[in-house]
Amino acid sequence: MAAKIEFKRWKNVPDVVNTAEEIGKIADKYLQYASSNKSEDKAQARKTWGQLSDKYWDLLFAILDAQTESFPSALTFDEEERLFIDFGFLHDEITPRNKKFDASLALTSKFALGVFSYRAFSDFIADCWGMITRNPLPVSPSGEKTEDKIEELEKRLSALQEKRNSEILKIVSRSKNMTGTDLDALVSDMSRTLISATKASMRTKEYREAKDDLKQAMSQDRFRYNEAERVMETQLSIAQKDEEEPLGLPELEMFTALHESTKILARKIIYCRQESDKIRRKAEKISHACAQFSQQMMRKELKNMLTKKKEYMAVPAKVARCEQSLLCPHDSEPMLYETASRIMEEMSDLDMDMFGVPRIRMYGVPQVIFIPGQGLGTYDWADHTILLPVFPTTSAEKAIAYGAGTFRWDSDEDRILKNAYETIKDNKGKSILEMATSFYKDYFLWITKEKKGYRILPRDTHKTFLQMFAPRKQED
Fold first, then answer.
1. What is the pLDDT of residue 472?
2. What's the pTM value of the predicted model, to 2 decimals?
């Protein structure tokens, strides 16, 4: 007899109790078949596990019906419920966890700060309810308020700039080619004008719609920043040729990486500020559409939104050709939110041009949602979200790269990538689906190996990726 599945908050709610009991009965059959040595029982075990997996949604909807019965202003989930919703865990006898699956660590892991907005599946559900009922979106137990995130990123940028300024002062002072006043002006211009200059270079909405005097000021800041950067590059070149103490290549590369990191972080801060506005507009759009709904209709709309998501949540397993189940697998450990989001941010640093695609200009940076189940990451075009299975196939890096690669391919509306990629000899005659699958694999190698200096891709593919991801000049 399988252990009893029980959720303490809903132990007196018939629908939740009955659904849990149904799952328990199916689990009994599964465990019986799985422990048998008969070949026919092995087939029955796989079939019964599929039936058990399908019950994930029945139990989820039963829990949500129980919580929304009182029509709360916000949905909240305790640790027991989050383990089920976010990781597909029912009970150690039914869904035994891998020995490396530390539930406490998984539930307390925090999302890394960066350009993307990260949500667990339970967070996504709570967000849907907040938008439907026109209530403030709750803060994820694993995240921070957008305002706090931006403030922390700005502190990091300030620290990076101070470090960069200190390094350039040391380098330039060797040759004594610039006076102290000129050096101070150089670092001051780069630090003071970075954000404004980046807005102008990115042609943000704030820049495009600014009044003439403000727009002119931002354009002047861009000119000052570019000029300061030009002078800095000249001074670095002089330092390399210094006869007494020439600037070595390793030191130059370290400084260049530091300087580039300030520019990347500045862009991320701007995207985060824009994202806050996009999230607000999306919430208002959904709230407006549901404004005339009765409470019963709003509860039904929550189920409709999750049912639409259900189709895309099956894709990660299909792409990886692994078991399509949202239940906790016994042979895998989940990737921690902190680790996965940090990898996602690092990959975005290597492909910042992804944020320049038209789809992001229209809908904002895609939200990243961690979903239960196994597989590789994917992109939900309908909801503009990147889905990452918490139990990645092969590795977290591959699952995340596939999610970013799928977004890159699906958002390539101008066919900058597709037109070039289909010219590769090995891609001749491939269907659109085969071409996409091939691109995900190559993008994974490109972002995890080639961008870090390792030659992995075939020569023809390598040259094409250099062409596809070459830096593009900003529009004037």
1. 64
2. 0.92
